[in-house]
Structure formats: C-alpha cells, structure tokens
Amino acid sequence: MVTLVVATSADPASIGPASSLLAMPGWHPGPSLQDSASYTNKEVRLIKLDKRLVVENHLDKRWEEATGETVDDVVFLSKHVASSNRPALTIHPIGTPHLREGEALTAGGKPGWAAPPNPRIGPWFRLLKNIANSHNLVPEFEVIQRNTFSLYNYIHCYRKLRLYDDDGINEAGKNQKLSLVG
C-alpha cells in the first residue's frame, strides 16, 4: 500500500512543499499518470499535476489502475486563506455533506459525500503544529484545527481517506516558501 501525495503546478502553496519533499534523499522518478510526472520514496508517491486539484476526482482509483499499487491515503497539498487573512496551516478531511443529491457543485465531488473518518487526522495535526512551532512559523502562520469539511472547494470523490494539507497563503505571504519537512 502507498500514500499518494498530490501537488499541482497551478498553486505555489502546493508546489513549494512538493519541491521541499523532493529535495530530500531517496526520491526516484516514478510512473507517469496521464502525462503527469510522479516520484517514489519507499511507500510514498508524489504526483505533480498541471490542473487545479478541484478537478481531480477518483485520482486514487486512476493511480491503482495505472500502476497496480493500492492507495491507502491521499494527501493534497493546497492552499486556503484563514478568516484572519493570515497565512494558515491546517489538515482537514474533504467532502460536501451539506449538499443534497442533485445540487450543483462549484468543483469536483459528489453532493452529500464526505471522506470517511481516519484516526491519523489528530496525530497529523499535532505533528503539523509541532513542526510549525519548531520552525518559528507561529505567529506569522496560524495553525488551525478544522473540524469541518472543506465545503466550497477541494471536494473530490474517493473511496478512502483523503486529506488536505492546506498552506493558506494570502497576498502578503504568497512569495514565502514554506517547508513542512522536518
């Protein structure tokens, strides 16, 4: 089983952490998926997409069909801006449980669907908080625990846990490179 980390070149807050991951030792070129480059490091796969993440439904299934590898988790590197308008770091599940079947979506996904619960969300959030503190990113970046789903964007259909590691960048922080790699 593999963890699929998904980045997009359309989002600086996505490609920055992806570049930091790939700068670490152990990465090798992996199989391409629909003309998108991928990289492997033990049980982790990182794929760089050109499209915005909101149009990528069933990426786990497509990866499994293309490679024969079972995807255990998918982590999206993306951005949001905190309500305070400060750059923010968060981890949250995805879904649109507030919509009814047949209601219009502004992005990918399925009305009324939500990612299944996973016990790793809590530990991953605590790790994110510890990394942010140890790298002196607080208070410049808020570390937000979002117990709600991302309701308005980044909504996809997947069969297993899907998370977003949101590196929220506002205008003041859009050029800051952030590495969450220990």
Overview of the molecule:
The protein is of the alpha/beta class. It has a single domain (2-173), classed as Aminopeptidase (3-Layer(aba) Sandwich), CATH 3.40.630. The chain is built from three helices and eight strands. It has helices at 12-22, 59-67, 121-134; strands at residues 2-8, 28-29, 38-41, 44-49, 71-78, 88-93, 142-145, 162-168. The protein has an eight-stranded mixed β-sheet with strand order 2-3-4-1-5-8-6-7, sandwiched between helices. The radius of gyration is 16 Å and the shape is globular. It starts with a strand and ends in a 14-residue tail after the last strand. Mean pLDDT is 75; it is low at 148-182. Pfam families: tRNA_deacylase (PF04414).
CATH fold node name: Aminopeptidase
How many helical stretches? 3
Structure class: alpha/beta
Rg from Cα? 16 Å
Q: Strand order of the main beta sheet, please?
A: 2-3-4-1-5-8-6-7
Tally of strands:
8
Describe the structure concisely.
By secondary structure, the chain is an alpha/beta fold.
Highlighted features:
8-stranded mixed sheet, D-aminoacyl-tRNA deacylase activity, 3 helices, about 180 residues, metal-binding, alpha/beta, Aminopeptidase, globular, zinc
Topology:
Layout: E1 2-8, H1 12-22, E2 28-29, E3 38-41, E4 44-49, H2 59-67, E5 71-78, E6 88-93, H3 121-134, E7 142-145, E8 162-168
Parallel strand pairs: 1-4, 1-5, 5-8, 6-7
Antiparallel strand pairs: 2-3, 3-4, 6-8
